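User: Hi! I'm working on a homework problem where we have to compare a predicted structure to a textbook description. Could you give me the structure for the chain below?
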Amino acid sequence: MKFALALALAFVPLAAPAAADGTSVTPWHERITPHGDLRVRAERTASQGAKTRIRNRIRARAGFNARVNDGVSATVRLATAANTTDSAISSDQTLDDAAAKKAFWLDQAYFDWQAAQDLAVAGGKLPVPYWSAGDSELLWDGDLNLEGAAARWTMDTESLDCSLTAGGYWIDERADTAADPGVDLLLTGAQAVVAYRTRPIDLSLGVAYYTFAGLGGSPFQGRGARGNPASAANAGHYRSDFLPLVTALEIGWSDPLLPVRLFVERAENTAISGDRAAAAAGLVIGALKAPGSWSLAYSYQAIEPSALVGAFNDSDFGAGADARYHKARAWAQAADGVVAALAVYSGKTAATAEPRGYDRAQLDFLFEF
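Assistant: Happy to help. Predicted structure tokens:
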């Protein structure tokens, strides 16, 4: 908390500003909300053909939200990460290197503008604005923050909630040289979601379409291939373009004692004709809401090699594409702001041609402040 407060202090004036008519506005310290969290993890990874690894890891995040005025706010957050290449889909730092210092990087920096009662706009380095059924990470890892701008229109009634989200984001700005045509890599996406709520049953349906402009024939992004096939003409480059059409369905039972959610999500890369489908299905039981509460989740994911961009989805399994695996998780809230969690992953990487076993177990202790 002290770190988050210090970070907030660095970005705000020491005196409260005055309004144009001479009256004072809300003091800065009442417009700043610091926040942060710490995760301590013990992890075991076993990959066929490789040495079993046992690691202790940490993730620390600290930032603040600042209310600029009644319609605009700004958020800045720092987070640990091993380096800039890994940091897009992971904020974990491994405890090694003779107790060396661990680095913080800019994780989020964005504005939120309530442009109208039913229209919101955000821009900067911002959380993924698209809905995923069952909090699936089929397309987007939970640590990913996109870089660009998005707008969301909403319409809410007593039993029906509708939203339309659209945005554009930078993947890579590339200089034009004699050796490289310098095609900029861009992501655009639009999603429509309809949620029908008739207690205790909730039904949500989403349809989305994304374009990864210029990715086919361009260098691998982030951690590299992560299961995506390479171009035959140029190793280290994507073989195909990515234009995924995504449908998602979630059915919930909102019982206050034991809520349950069933979900399925499917993606298909419409840019190609083969190895282009991905799907996730599972359920979530319970919810964390007070000390003593708990939650369980299970899902199965199958992702063909060219279905999705492996640089952006679930980082906790060994490959983002060309993978099939089970994921089981459990959470227990021990006290206010304190949660213990266990996750187990088991499946195959390189699942299409030469399947290799991959298993990972993670024991987490999370502290929110």
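For your comparison, note the following. The mean pLDDT is 91. The chain is about 0% helix and 55% strand. Good luck with the assignment!
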